Amino acid sequence: MPLPLERFAYDLPPELIAQTPADRRDQARLLDVGEQLGDRKFSDIDALLPEGAVLVVNDTRVVPARLAARKPTGGAVELLLLERLAADDGARDAQRWRCLARASKKLTAGTVLTLERTDGTAVVEAAPRVTLATDRAGDGTVEVLLPEPTESLLDEWGDLPLPPYIERPAGNTAEDRERYQTVFAREPGAVAAPTAGLHFTEDVLARVRARGIDIAAVTLHVGLGTFAPVRVDDFDDHDLHYERFTISPETAALVESDRPVVAVGTTVVRALEAAMGDDGRLRTGWQQTNLFIKPGFRFRAVDWLVTNFHLPESTLLVLVAAFAGYDTIMAAYRHAVARRYRFFSYGDAMLLRCAPDVARS
Fold it and tell me: In 3-state terms, what secondary structure has residue 149?
């Protein structure tokens, strides 16, 4: 049946959009969505999870993907890195990135840009340079070649790409550098955080392990396409972007062990469900998917979900509605607004159970 955009609208007062993280990661609020709605603290989560479960996190690390630069003419350019591109051998090339570029005039291939400090400090003679490799006008992006070593260059010259609804005149802060990463972030490559994981602390993870819960990881480098607005009236007409992810044999074995699987975030749900074969086994290694999880999808890998509150009329709201049930989710969102929960990336969290009619048997 049709899936109109308007079914996933809800009223959100602007002041409920979190602009800063909670004072402590685990002191965010947690809406426990079970047979009844329970208002908790995130620090309670270890007692709410099923004993002996498998908790799967996304260990991607956000890179400082926003770069300020100047053209040879002196014109300002802002680059927002979106994803690493493949080298000739098919492997990921740390130097070559697809990105959005903002400039007063169209950029052309071969242009050499000089990086600037985003905090306004002077650019020294030895400032690194970026080369525009190719123009991809068809999708509004360009490719750039970054000098080596790329990771340290981004750490020194880049800014974290906070979502546009976090509105601050000063931009990034030292707190953002720490708090917009999860405590289990290991693999650099994301340009947006897997935000459900931001609430976990080492203490919470220790208490989770004490209940016999194993912690496993997938790597899915979150791109801005995850949050791209839906520009059609019906979700059935929306094409979802591709994302690359990898699953290790160790994680696959835990997920396949017939224990309850708790996904930390929608990125983990998407990776596990996309990789699950008809034989009940997970494909391992690097792969990609444009799987769009909508109501009616039958979940074969994930039983529980920890997630933040998502934007109205977004594909992520559709995913959680498919997981827990449309009526359940919309009632939970109305409750969260009435109880003044904080929304989106730096906001509060929910704990969901998979609806019986879509759960694996």
Answer: coil
Each residue's pLDDT tens digit, 22-72? 999 999 999 999 999 999 999 999 999 999 999 999 999 999 988 888 888
Per-residue confidence (pLDDT) for residue 112, from 0 to 100: 85
CATH number for the domain spanning 141: value is 2.40.10
- DSSP secondary structure, 256-313, as one string: TSSS-EEEESHHHHHHHHHHB-TTS-B--EEEEE-----TTPPPSS-SEEEEE---TT
| CATH code, 13 | 3.40.1780.10
How many domains does the chain divide into?
A: 2
Residue 122: burial class (beta carbons within 10 Å; 0-12, 13-18, 19+): exposed
Residue 122: pLDDT band with limits 50, 70, 90: very low
Tokens describing residue 54 = 């498998």
Look at residue 356 in the predicted model and tell me its pLDDT.
93
Q: Do 211 and 292 reside in the same domain of the chain?
A: yes
In a domain? residue 170: no
* Structural domain that includes position 209: 5-62+176-353
Cis amide leading into 149 (omega within 30) = yes
Instruction: Give the torsion sign (CA, 108, 112, 117, 123).
Output: negative
Same domain, 347 and 233: yes
Q: Which is nearest to 325 in space by CA: 303, 301, 352, 348?
A: 352
- pTM of model > 0.85: yes
286 plus 335 within the same structural domain:
yes
- Do 334 and 216 lie in one domain? The reply is yes
Residue spans of alpha helices (H) in the chain: 45-48, 150-157, 174-179, 202-210, 249-255, 266-275, 315-324, 326-338
Chosen domain end from 157, 191, 210? 157
- The rounded distance, in Å, linking the Cα atoms of 299 and 352 is 13
147 in the same domain as 49: no
Q: What is the pLDDT of residues 201-228, one digit of tens each?
A: 999 999 999 999 999 999 999 876 655 5
Distance CA(195)–CA(266), nearest Å, equals: 9
Q: Of the residues 157, 184, 215, which one is the last residue of a structural domain?
A: 157
